[in-house]
Amino acid sequence: VPRRPEFAVPEKYLFYPAQFWLHKNHTGLALAVAELAASLPDLRIVAAGNTGQNGYEAFADLVRKRGLEQVFILPGYVPVEELAWLYAHARGFVMPTYFGPTNIPPLEAMSLGCPVAISGIYGMREQCGDAALYFNPDNPHDMAQAIVTLWTDDAQCATLVEKGKIRSHMYSVDAFNKNILRLVEGFCA
């Protein structure tokens, strides 16, 4: 059962649940956010994940150097019940990762009604289809534009939520079972 986290959660925030590994590209996210600091002073990002990983120090150093301490909320590890609540109440989900082609967090976000902006790397478009905004994870300006859309465009977010709910049904247990049955029947025929 989803439950509100015990840490202070802003009323409006973007969500990125990921361990602070280098390939998760938190530093790219910080560079994009730094570009938006003046134009979106109310922007807040909850970045949940183990801060003991190899990408945390570079990210934290960049956040300090760019004066973004008020933008990023870093609760560390968050239990699954709190993750579900954070997805369901977030303004949007942003994922600047370098790895794909399949990732669970965008599907979790879509299934819980959270609009998605994600790296346009290999396989992501096949996984998320038209239910996500895509950006180049190496281009902070491109990522910043996706963040602005999530933060300010109510109509686009509503469209992404609807498309995301439809898309997430492709990955349901029922859909999985039907595909397995189809494969088994095809193999046995």
Short description:
The chain has helices at 26-36, 56-65, 80-89, 104-111, 124-128, 140-152, 154-168, 173-188; strands spanning 14-17, 45-48, 72-76, 92-95, 116-119, 132-135. The chain contains 8 helices and 6 strands; from the N terminus they run E-H-E-H-E-H-E-H-E-H-E-H-H-H.
**Mind summarizing the main beta sheet?**
6 strands, parallel
Broad shape: globular
Alpha-carbon distance between the two ends = 42 Å
Integer-rounded radius of gyration: 17 Å
pLDDT < 50 stretches = none
Please tag this protein with its features:
single chain; 189 residues; alpha/beta; six-stranded parallel sheet; 8 helices; globular
Describe this structure in words.
With 189 residues, the protein is an alpha/beta fold. The chain has helices at residues 26-36, 56-65, 80-89, 104-111, 124-128, 140-152, 154-168, 173-188; strands at residues 14-17, 45-48, 72-76, 92-95, 116-119, 132-135. Strands 3-2-1-4-5-6 form a six-stranded parallel sheet, sandwiched between helices. Strand 5, helix 5 (124-128) and strand 6 (132-135) form a beta-alpha-beta unit. Helix 1 packs parallel to helix 2 (56-65) and helix 4 (104-111) packs across helix 7. The protein is globular. The model has no long low-confidence stretch (mean pLDDT 94).
